[in-house]
Amino acid sequence: MNGPRIIIDPVACDAYGYCAELLPEAVILDEWGYPIVDDRPLPAALLALARRAARDCPKRAIAIRAKKSS
Amino acid sequence: MWVGPEHFGTPYASIPLRTIGAVAGVGVIVVLGETSCGLTETARIVRYLAGQSAGQCGPCLHGLPSIASDLAQLARGLGGDQTVARLGRRLGEVNGRGACRHPDGAVNLVRSALAVFATDIAAHRRGEPCPYWRNLTGLRFPGPIGL
C-alpha cells in the first residue's frame, strides 16, 4: 500500500483551494480553506487529475509521491 | 494535558504517566484548586498557544484561535451542543495538519480537558457555568491572557 498519494506542504499552502476544485474526489477544504486530503494511495484513475492539481497549485504546495516510510 | 485527582499519586516520569494516558509534556505542572474553572484555564492556555504559533500553517494559524474561542464560549456558559460539536470537528481538523507538532500538543490538551472536565462541560453547555469561571487563578502567563 505504498502507491502515490497527495502530499500537502502545509507551510507553502495558502488556501487557494484549486486542488479541491480540480480533485474533489480526494481533497476537501477545512473551514478556513485549507485542504484535507485522503491519506490512502490514489486510485489509478485519479493519478492524471492529481498531477494536474499539483501542477496548477499557485503555491506549489502539492506533491504526488509515495509516502516516506517512517 | 489534564489528569484527574484519581491520578495524583502518579510519579512524574514517562512510563508511569503513559500508564494513565498522560505525557510529561513541557514540564509545567499546575494544580487547579476548587475555586478554579478547568474550562477557563484550558481556554486561556490555548489562547496563549495560539499566540505562540509560528503562523506558518493555516490549520494552526486559524484553528488554535477558533478552538480557544469555542472553549471560552463554553466556559462562559454561552456554548451549547453546537459549540461542543464544532469544537470536536475543529480538534480533528487541526490535529496533525501542521508542519510541526505545536497544534497537536494544543489538541491533546483540549482533548484531555474534555475528558477530565466532562461533568463541568455538561453543566456549562446547559448554560450553568461554574461560579468560578472568572477566577483566573490557575496559571500565570508572560503577558495578560484573557478569555
Tally of individual domains of chain A: 1
**Structural domain count of chain B:** 1
**CATH class descriptor name of chain A:** Alpha Beta
Helix content of chain B: 40-55%
| Number of beta-strand segments of chain B | 0
The CATH topology of chain B corresponds to: de novo design (two linked rop proteins)
Strand content of chain A: 15-25%
Helix/sheet category of chain B: mainly alpha
Mean pLDDT across every amino acid position of chain B: 92
Largest sheet of chain A: 2 strands, antiparallel
Which architecture of chain A per CATH? 2-Layer Sandwich
CATH superfamily assignment of chain B? Answer: NADH-ubiquinone oxidoreductase 51kDa subunit, iron-sulphur binding domain
Pair of chains with the largest interface and how many residues each contributes: A-B, 12 and 12 residues
- Strand portion of chain B: under 5%
* Termini gap of chain A: 14 Å
Number of helices of chain A: 2
Write the element-wise H/E pattern of chain B from the N-terminal end onward.
Answer: HHHHHH
End-to-end separation of chain B: 19 Å
Keyword list:
heterodimer; A: 70 residues; alpha+beta; Alpha-Beta Plaits; two-stranded antiparallel ribbon; two-stranded antiparallel sheet; 4 strands; B: 147 residues; mainly alpha; de novo design (two linked rop proteins)
Q: How does this structure look, described?
A:
Chain A has 70 residues and is an alpha+beta fold. Chain A has a single domain, classed as Alpha-Beta Plaits, CATH 3.30.70.20. Chain A has 2 helices and 4 strands. In chain A, the strands form 2 sheets. A two-stranded antiparallel ribbon of chain A has the order 1-4. Chain A is globular. With 147 residues, chain B is mainly alpha-helical. Chain B has a single domain, classed as NADH-ubiquinone oxidoreductase 51kDa subunit, iron-sulphur binding domain (de novo design (two linked rop proteins)). Helices cover 52% and strands 0% of the residues of chain B. Chain B is built from 6 helices and no strands. In chain B, helix 3 runs antiparallel to helix 4. Chain B is globular. Chain B starts with 13 loop residues before the first helix and ends in a 22-residue tail after the last helix. Chains A and B meet through loops of A and helix 3 of B.
